UniProtKB/TrEMBL annotation, chain A:
The keyword Iron-sulfur is annotated on this UniProt entry: no
Location(s) in or outside the cell: Cell outer membrane
Domain TonB-dependent receptor plug: start-end pairs: 119-219
Name recorded for this polypeptide: TonB-dependent receptor
Family label: Belongs to the TonB-dependent receptor family.
Length: 745, 118
């Protein structure tokens, strides 16, 4: 307490005068929190005091004519409060604009929509991740409906994450806010992040910020890894499923240095292959033999929201081998064999990033981010050999400036670098394929960007407007405007709208691995231009509370229109895949309704419905995009006992019939129906928690549903009709698993 | 020296005039509440923090843990909150190790003892 205050207090007491007492709060992430040290002053006077360690303040009332208080605290918006004749006053200050938009994730509640972010952002946190085994990133979306994991290659079990019914290449996958999963890393990258490394996943649909680049079209998936200063000191995890696949994870975190200002985390992960399983007796393994090793070391110094320097860095190495195909395939002897079919992918990838920030004042901060990865891959897809190498880099320098209290401007420059070399050769001569050779895909893209966030009418409205200008080394300048608006109608209702464009360069074989596995010849009709699209969307979020029940209902609609798109044209010629730009009509319209209810913090129920209408107009006819069910539904139930020792989870995904690739040109025995049959898959899990030990067991695909004959011409894998691209449902049958997690906090 | 004097004077004034200051419609009461089902040393600070984030609570102190129980002494304003509300706040405090649980319970003593503290 300052001397002035003491004297004033003393005077007040001497005169036997009245005082006003009260409490000062600040708006926190989980409700209001006291603000010790905050200042409270009578308007137009020097009569002031500071809130004590309990947030309590007391001021004399005598000789005060204008009974209005001014309350202030760093990081919060100063407020004036009319007191009237109250003797006790509670003051809650709003957080300053520059702290908005950064969402602090807690593990208290489950998946939810962020209320603070301007774009529609769904947060999947650790509580939500604990509801399923979540071995890798692709397995983390079992209890939500926005992201749909889709198997792209049944033999190597490569998966992509679809948003709005569009291929995974159209959404941007970020690791700690930096682009890491693209190019050669696209096909297998998402599987290399174990669930134990993930702190939270933020899913944004539709238009997103321009700060992370020009690429996202259908949305963004940002995976935040665990923070060395906040995570458990030790975390051990083991998992095994009924096919015999084993996973082991260990995280170790500690503070280092004399002042314990540095924090570091070491994360180790391995997968050891399953036994050879062929449940449907088609001669092919149901799941590949997967061997993976990953080591990650992350460092952190300081806090970017405090003045001064903050640093964060990460180094990671992944080495992976996938072997799939006919059960007798052994890569050492059968690579490129024309008698026994198999696919073998083997790669090593080191990667790193550094983020440095310097906060000059409350209003100014500068940051520099650099990231990159290199991958060396040696693969065989039947008789096709694929050797590829990629070096990628990303550099971003940014200045952040809070101006006129209501605006936050972020602007800067970025550079994207990529050098992708792909070497293709064939070990057979009977398939008459002509595209052997070397392919180089480069990216040299300098760019400038600016984004302004404007809060007005007491945060009722927030508007983000962003623009970036990038220069592609071959195709020239690209302008990317994007905008997002949030309107908080009241405590219960929030409206959002967004619109913007995005573009991306195609990395042909790295992203279309099925081309290599196909018996078709690949014909290049013209040079591929970058794909470009415009997206707009609206969403409405309603949240309510009634007694011990809380709930939320969200409805959203997004529409994407491509102005240039690429997809291999399989229809013009049954023996060829033609590579050309598609500038005709290609659209995606996606509607989602999502409702969740929580009773007594024990029972959570969630249900969602998706309507997808994704089509292209080709040769005058409307063609629905394969593998997108028009209707899709999801339901999830989670129950925790009152003593929190037991947790039971169940979820169901139902898929309407999907359009499948056209096989009508094949001989009768190699034809498939034009549509799949509707099906549902059920998953359950039971978790027992005892202090920091969790034991979980579950079952995926409970009803043992399988797509019949997923591989076309499985008995003749070297024939011209061998086709892996007709997979629409589960192929591996029921899967049981057990796992254990142990943590030391 | 001057500072010390001012401080002593302020303290003396506070002691002398405190009762007069509080003699308004609002009164300040002290509640003594026994909280059970505590398992670690972090439970008490968790509860204290939760209580201080409520309006009308000026001060929270607690005794050391004794057989899963600690005695909390809470100074509060009757015009803003009540003992019932405080007890409810304690019982709905998320556990310090498991944020999804609300393990803490108020031990109801027989009326006589409770009254003696009020």
């Amino acid at each position: 307490m300052s001397r002035m205050t003491i004297v004033l207090l003393l005077l007040a007491h001497m005169c036997g005068a009245q005082t006003i007492k009260g409490k000062l709060f600040g708006e926190g992430v989980q409700g209001k929190e006291i603000l010790p040290g905050g200042m409270v002053r009578w308007l137009g006077t020097d009569v002031a005091t500071f809130a004590n360690e309990n947030g309590v303040f007391e001021l004399p009332v005598s000789s005060i004519k204008d009974r209005r208080l001014i309350a202030s605290n760093m990081g919060f918006v100063t407020d004036t409060i009319a007191v009237g004749d109250r003797t006790y006053v509670s003051i809650t200050l709003r957080r300053d604009a520059k702290d908005l938009g950064t969402v602090t994730i807690t593990d208290r509640s489950g998946a939810r929509l962020s209320t603070t972010s301007v774009g529609q952002t769904e947060i999947i946190n650790q509580r939500e991740l604990s509801k399923a085994a979540c071995c890798d990133l692709a397995g983390c979306f079992g209890t939500q409906a926005s992201v749909q994991p889709q198997t792209t290659n049944i033999v190597t079990n490569a998966q992509e994450l679809r948003i709005l019914g569009l291929s995974g290449v159209y959404n941007q996958v970020l690791f700690d806010g930096l682009p890491m999963v693209y190019g050669l890393n696209y096909t297998y990258g998402i599987s290399t992040y174990p669930g134990t490394l993930v702190n939270s996943i933020m899913v944004s649909k539709g238009t997103t910020s321009v700060l992370q680049g020009y690429e996202s079209i259908s949305g963004q998936i940002n995976m935040e890894s665990r923070q060395p200063d906040k995570t458990e000191r030790l975390l051990l995890n083991g998992y095994m499923n009924s096919f015999g696949e084993k996973h082991a994870n260990a995280n170790l975190a500690t503070a280092v240095g004399r002042n314990k200002k540095w924090h570091t985390m070491l994360s180790l992960h391995t997968v050891q292959p399953a036994g050879k399983v062929d449940g449907n007796n088609d001669g092919f393994l149901d799941l590949p033999l997967l061997t993976r090793y990953m080591a990650l070391n992350k460092w952190r110094y300081g806090n970017e929201r405090e003045k001064g320097l903050s640093l964060q860095g990460m180094v990671r190495v992944v080495s992976e081998r996938r072997i799939g195909g006919q059960t007798g395939y052994a890569p050492a002897e059968n690579e490129g064999s024309t008698s026994i079919y198999g696919q073998c992918v083997h790669y090593t990838q080191p990667e790193a990033y550094v983020k440095a920030g310097y906060r000059l004042s409350d209003d100014h901060a500068v940051s520099l981010a650099a990231s990159g990865f290199a991958q060396q891959q040696r693969s065989w897809f039947g008789t096709t050999s694929y050797h590829a190498r990629q070096q990628s880099g990303y550099l971003n320098l940014q200045h952040e400036w809070l101006w006129r209290e209501k605006h936050l401007l972020k602007y800067g420059a970025s550079y994207r670098y990529q050098e992708l070399n792909e070497q293709i050769a064939f070990s057979d001569t009977f398939l008459h394929r002509t595209y052997a050779g070397r392919y180089d895909t480069r990216l040299r893209v300098p760019g400038l960007f600016a984004e302004n966030t404007f809060h007005w009418k007491d945060e009722k409205y927030t508007l983000i407007t962003g623009l970036r200008l990038d220069h592609h080394q071959q195709w020239g300048a690209y302008l990317t405007p994007r905008s997002m608006l949030k309107y908080v109608i009241n405590d219960h209702h929030t409206l959002r709208a967004s619109a913007g464009t995005g573009w991306r360069q195609v990395n042909l074989f790295a992203e279309q691995v099925n081309l290599l596995a196909s018996s078709r010849d690949v014909v290049f009709a013209e040079a591929l231009k970058p794909e470009q699209a415009m997206n707009w969307g609206v969403s409405h979020n309603y949240r309510f509370e009634a007694g011990d029940m809380t709930g939320a209902v969200t409805g959203d609609f997004y529409s994407t229109r491509f102005s240039n798109q690429f997809f291999p044209d399989y229809d013009s010629d049954p023996t060829r895949a033609i590579i050309r730009n598609f500038t005709g009509v290609s659209r995606s319209n996606a509607l989602q309704v999502d409702a969740s209810l929580t009773f007594f913090k024990q029972l959570e129920v969630r249900a969602a419905y998706n309507y997808l209408y994704v089509y292209r107009i080709e040769n005058g006819g409307k063609n629905m995009l394969p593998f997108n069910p028009r209707n899709r539904a999801m339901a999830a139930v989670s129950y925790t006992t009152r003593n929190k020792h037991w947790q039971a989870d169940a979820n169901m995904h139902w898929f309407d019939r999907m359009r499948l690739p056209d096989t009508r040109n094949n001989p009768v025995e190699y034809r498939r129906p034009l549509y799949s049959v509707p099906y549902a898959s059920y998953n359950v899990q039971l978790t027992y928690k005892w202090r920091t030990l969790d034991v979980y067991a579950g079952c995926e695909n409970l009803l043992n549903y399988r797509q019949p004959d997923p591989i076309i011409s499985a008995t003749n894998p070297f024939g011209p009709y061998f086709d892996l691209s007709s997979v629409w449902g589960p192929t591996r049958g029921r899967e049981l698993y057990v796992g254990v997690r142990y943590a030391i906090k | 020296m001057k500072k010390t004097f001012a401080f002593i004077a302020a303290m003396a004034a506070l002691l002398l005039f405190a009762p007069a200051t509080y003699a308004q419609a609002d009164s300040v009461k002290t509640a003594v509440i026994k909280v059970t089902n505590l398992h670690c040393n972090n439970d008490m600070p968790t509860i204290k923090k939760r209580l201080l984030n409520n309006d009308g609570i000026d001060e929270v102190t607690y005794s050391g843990i004794n057989g899963e129980t600690s005695v909390f002494t809470i100074v509060y304003h009757t015009s803003v909150t009540s003992q019932e509300q405080i007890e409810k706040a304690i019982e709905t405090t998320p556990g310090c190790d498991d944020k999804n649980s609300t393990p803490y319970r108020v031990r109801k003593e027989n009326g006589r003892k409770k009254k003696a503290h009020e």
